[in-house]
Amino acid sequence: MNSLKIPDFLIFSTISSVFHSKENLMNTTAKFHLTAAAFGVLIASSVYAETNQVYSNTVQAHNAPMTVDVIMKDGKIANILTDNRESPGVGKLAIANLSKKIIRNQTINVDNVTGASVTSMALKYAVKKNLEAAGADLSKFQTKLPKAQLKDTYSSEVVIVGGGGAGLAAAASVIEAGGTAIIVEKLGYLGGSTVVSGGGYNAVDPERQNRQNIDDSIDRHFQDTMRGGHNKNNPELVKKLVEEAPPTMHWLEGKGLGFGPKVRVIVGGLYPRGHGAEGGGYGYIRVLEKFIKAYPDKVKVFTDTQAVKLIKNEAGKVIGVLGKHDSKDVNFMASKGVIIATGGFGSNVEMRQAKNTGVWKEVTLDKNIPCTNNFKASQGDGLKLAEQVGANVINLDDIQLHPGGTPKTGIMSSWPSGRNRIFLTPQGDRFVNEDAARDTLCKAVFKEGGKYWIVSNHVKYPTLDYQSKNLTIGEMIKLGQAFSGNTIEELAQKTGMDPKKLRASIDTYNDVVTGKIKEDNLGFKKFTQDDKPMTEGPFYATPMVPAVHHTMGGIQINSAAQVLDKAGHVIPGLFAAGEATGGVHGSNRVGGNGVADAMVFGRISGQSALK
Description:
With 611 residues, the chain is α+β, with helices and mostly antiparallel strands. The chain folds into three domains: 53-141, Sufe protein. Chain: A (Alpha-Beta Complex), CATH 3.90.1010.20; 153-344 and 380-398 and 552-609, 3-Layer(bba) Sandwich (FAD/NAD(P)-binding domain); 401-547, Flavocytochrome C3, Chain A, domain 1. Helix content is 29%, strand content 22%. It contains 15 helices and 24 strands. It has helices at 25-35, 91-105, 117-133, 165-176, 206-209, 218-228, 235-254, 281-293, 349-355, 381-388, 438-447, 473-478, 488-495, 499-513, 593-610; strands at 53-60, 65-73, 76-83, 153-161, 181-184, 200-202, 259-264, 274-277, 299-302, 305-312, 318-325, 328-340, 393-394, 399-405, 422-424, 452-457, 467-468, 471-472, 483-485, 539-551, 554-556, 562-564, 570-576, 581-582. The strands form six sheets. Strands 4, 5, 9, 10, 11, 12, 22 and 23 form an eight-stranded mixed sheet that branches. A hairpin with a 4-residue loop joins strand 1 (53-60) and strand 2 (65-73). Helix 7 packs across helix 15. It is globular, with a radius of gyration of 25 Å. The two termini are 45 Å apart. 54% of the residues are buried.
């Protein structure tokens, strides 16, 4: 039974109860919902419940404060409205699903959505406080909902462990090949870490690149990926990645995913071949989930189900997965093959510390170093499953950090991706070429003490309503995730930077992008026509820290996504894709290759499993 107690850090403020008559409800509810904004604090009042009333409460959710309005009619919850900045496909999905359950069953005793527990608790707490303000008898809203009972065994041709980007791409390809699949997902929703990613996708695409006079080729993408991975990559896998990235991108477009017309350099991407998906990482999940849902007879999805063991037959072929759902053992049998698509282990602090003997061995990757990924998803579960049946697991010391972590949380909600921003020390000096590889960027940050500023201006954020990731720049300022100044001196005063150093840093950057100098002493060059000078305020500064972002090592596969044992032999019936695998990225992943990897090898794994 879920307790409705909530940690103090979730409580932001309590908004007053606001009551409306039935005839004015349609006009006033929307108005109140807009004015009871996430950052407002109104004085609480106590009024007895009446028919057709609106009650509101604001709490701290996962990403930002969230206002929850509850409409009561005749003593029942008629509707729940929220003003939130939670992540699409994660927090927003949890809010929508829980709200429907609460309204349909008239109970707040509903289970948290696994993987979105902070958002779930925040919503339930706010609804509870609204019911209290309405004078409701809380005992009438505590009915425990029965849980769905699963059978002992389910069967299909393919079983996919993990419902993130790679797993959904695998399921879609199984459908297209005429097969059937089961997805086993431990979270309460699909999407994994892909859904919270920026969604940049590297691919050679002459149609878009030629418009910007960008000369590119498959071979150049190959060379950049090998160079970025310090030539520790498996060339066979890299070749497959770069060759299949363009047709897989068009495959996704055919399923309804839009990509922007502009090609960019994704941070750490080394070359302008990055394509921005509409909706970011959520865009991939949205279109693939929609495609899969159109074939309910082909794919069955089991969420809140942990895969605990792979099942082999006497001949050594992997033929299924033992799962656990609500403490019940469930067998998921596969007549053709099992695909592991469970992501990496970036959020598993104990595991990443134990394996951290590579590029970051001089840094203690403990809980003080946050992670950008979905915490529940990136625990390394698939690696442990594969090792149970003799799979070779390689290069686990290859752990990547991203410079775009929000201090303390690691969430990239305030990361100013793209162009027209500079990296500065706490004092205001530029210290690294902003276009360098991610490991180079993060090592430079650690050399400067582990914290830094990203400074931009109105070129990057034209208005306070301009949204970066999940938040607008105005909201970031109110949350203390960014600072603004109409002048360089004002920004320096607010951030503690030396105004002379800050001005000199901006001037040097401007000299490069205006063509006054071709390259500065850090190696920074004007990369695209989008690079603009920063000459006028307002100026913005965002505090940033390095955060664990990707684990390059994992299950060894071949170019058909078949899993290999320690002798290099194929393990019959077992396949893997995405961040759970090793060898594609070497010791450093090139920015923009991660989602491409998940989509390309996810698609290949589904095709291979059915052969």
